[in-house]
Design brief:
The protein is built from 21 helices and 20 strands. The protein is mostly helical. It has a three-stranded antiparallel sheet. Strands 12-13-14 form a three-stranded antiparallel sheet, with no helix packed on it. A hairpin with a 7-residue loop joins β17 and β18.
Length: about 575
């Protein structure tokens, strides 16, 4: 049993596995080295083409069978919009707002793939056909990351004088995408009204505001992951309102963290400030809160954001992390981040969810590459076993707890970022495995379908917009070394929905003195250990390790055994 307090030699412990691995290596020494140590350029070109074809198979069929509806049903080859007959179906209605979701969410992916003409056509379609004056009740978080973030990203790329993708300016473009983004953000603002804590309601009706029957509970990620998009919008239009409400929500959540552990819970009552769910983890309900603390600092340079991230990261390492101290050295179970009680750090359950696979990418962004390597290897081992990531995986039972896989991008994102950090061919092999699994297990008549069951590979008739906006984008970028994003002298960052935004000095300049008349001035503190400082804390990967395994074979074998691969 992993992380057991009982000193027994269970199958997943290092000492037992060491004996197992020595015996198994007699006939297959360096099996992992042989498989992962090289990746020919011809194969890279083939995989890049395969990722491109995957995107266009989904995108072209969406445009043919589904547009202007929000999503494509890839099995029936039909469009899907909000479930108007069942308003309580939040699995659908939180996301689908009757505003051509998939087209908007995909805009910058078209540029990443180099298709300027289709990008221009898509932008014109959005300008000519999309309106947010709809009687649709949507989740604030989803509308923000999928719609608002994409509109802002596409606007910036259209008007960026540095033109990372070439001359992509559109004749007669008059900031229409920015105006649409502003209009949507105004319609989301009622979520921040009439809340005692400043933490927003989870849902708004785009016409009428917060529904009268709205619940007073929201998750930490949903309320605390608005700052990147709202902050950029504020700085683009010179109106502090949007950044102020988003930042107020982050600060309100931050004040509710445990005095004992420094951790936050998963679900909070926006009126009382009481935690409804005391579970603290890195997956659903919490993931992008931590992600946006760091990315907000990178974009805006607000030291407050980085201090919150540093404190959160320390609490995560102290209370969520289990396993041996070093990723690539020593004995014991491999590092893993578990779900704990926010007040005492005790393990609450024995599952992790697929959204947590984003965390290796965030570790890379923070410079903790070695730790990222180890955690990524665990999720990759689960993928190898099932050809997908189950929504929840029970690390104690070595079995899925929740069996579906909706084509999520988090493992691909972390794979891409680790490859950019290390240039190790291992991660190209991971990307190839993911590509081939998706082709084999998820491809249907008109696109790629959600896996209902990762074991028997039965499917659901849904292709979420993030498959095109993130999963395909990161797969393509993984194999495209010459992409303009990689060659540009300017630095870019991805939002939590995979939208490209530049790290630009104009976003570090505010056209207002204070975010709030009541805001206290925080003394300037050194952030020399910040992720983009001259004195970086990055764990640099030595050159001699670039073409060896990022994780030693014995540890890879340990993880594979731990998830039941053999």
């Amino acid at each position: 049993m992993l992380f057991s307090d009982t000193p027994v030699c269970a199958p997943t412990t290092f000492s037992c596995l060491w004996l197992f691995s020595i015996g198994s290596k007699v006939g297959d020494r360096d099996e992992y080295d042989r498989r992962y140590s090289s990746f020919p350029d011809t194969l890279k070109i083939k995989m890049k083409g395969m990722a491109k074809d995957m995107f266009y198979f989904g995108y072209d069929n969406y445009m043919k069978y589904a547009f202007p509806e929000d999503e494509l049903n890839p099995i029936d080859c039909q469009g899907r919009g909000p479930d108007v007959l069942n308003p309580s179906n939040i699995n659908i209605n939180d996301v689908l707002g009757n505003y051509s979701l998939t087209l908007i969410d995909t805009l910058d992916t078209l540029l990443v793939l180099g298709n300027v003409s289709e990008f221009h056509r898509a932008v014109k379609l959005v300008i000519d056909t999309v309106s947010f004056d709809k009687d649709s009740t949507v989740q604030v978080f989803e509308a923000n990351i999928r719609i608002l973030g994409s509109l802002i990203s596409a606007h910036i790329l259209l008007t960026d004088p540095k033109h990372p993708f070439g001359n992509v300016g559109l004749v007669d473009y008059d900031n229409e995408l920015l105006h649409l983004a502003h209009d949507l953000a105004v319609r989301l603002l009622p979520a921040f009204e009439n809340t005692s804590t400043g933490i927003p309601y989870p849902r708004v009706n785009l016409k009428s505001g917060v529904p009268p029957d709205s619940i007073n509970e929201t998750c930490t990620a949903g309320a605390g992951s608005l700052l990147v998009e709202f902050g950029i919008l504020s700085r683009l239009i010179g109106d502090s309102t949007f950044e102020w409400v988003a930042r107020r929500a982050v600060r309100a959540l931050w004040k509710l963290r445990s005095n004992e552990t420094g951790l936050l819970g998963n679900v909070v009552n926006i009126q009382t400030g009481q935690w409804v769910s005391k579970q603290s983890g890195l997956g659903a309900g919490m993931d992008s809160f931590y992600e946006y603390l760091l990315k907000s600092y990178i974009l805006f340079g607000e030291k407050e954001d980085y201090r919150m991230f540093q404190a959160s990261y320390e609490s995560i390492q102290n209370h969520l992390r289990r396993g041996r101290e070093s990723c690539n050295e020593g004995e014991g179970d491999p590092p893993l981040y578990v779900n704990v009680n926010m007040f005492n750090g005790q393990i609450m359950n024995t599952w992790i969810d697929s959204l947590q696979a984003f965390f290796p990418g965030l570790l890379v962004l923070n410079g903790d590459v070695e730790e990222a390597i180890c955690l990524h290897a665990f999720y990759y081992a689960i993928w190898k076993r099932f050809g997908a990531l189950p929504e929840r995986y029970n690390w104690q039972l070595q079995a899925p707890d929740v069996l579906f896989y909706p084509l999520r991008p988090e493992l691909v994102e972390s794979t891409y970022l680790l490859y950019q950090a290390t240039k190790n061919p291992f991660y190209l092999h991971v990307g190839m495995d993911i590509l081939e699994s998706l082709e084999k297990n998820a491809k249907v008549r008109c696109g790629y379908a959600t896996l209902h069951h990762v074991v028997d590979k039965s499917k659901e008739d849904r292709m979420e917009s993030f498959f095109l906006s993130e999963t395909c984008k990161y797969l393509y970028l993984l194999f495209d070394d010459d992409n303009p994003l990689h060659k540009s002298e300017n630095k870019y960052i991805f939002t939590t929905e995979g939208h490209v935004v530049p790290i630009d000095k104009r976003f570090r300049e505010k056209q207002w003195n204070d975010l709030s008349p009541c805001e206290k001035v925080v003394p300037d503190q050194e952030t020399s250990n910040g992720p983009f400082s001259n004195n970086s804390n990055c764990d640099r990967i030595p050159e001699e390790r670039r073409y060896s395994l990022p994780l030693k074979s014995v540890y890879m074998r340990q993880i594979d055994h731990m998830v039941g691969l053999f």
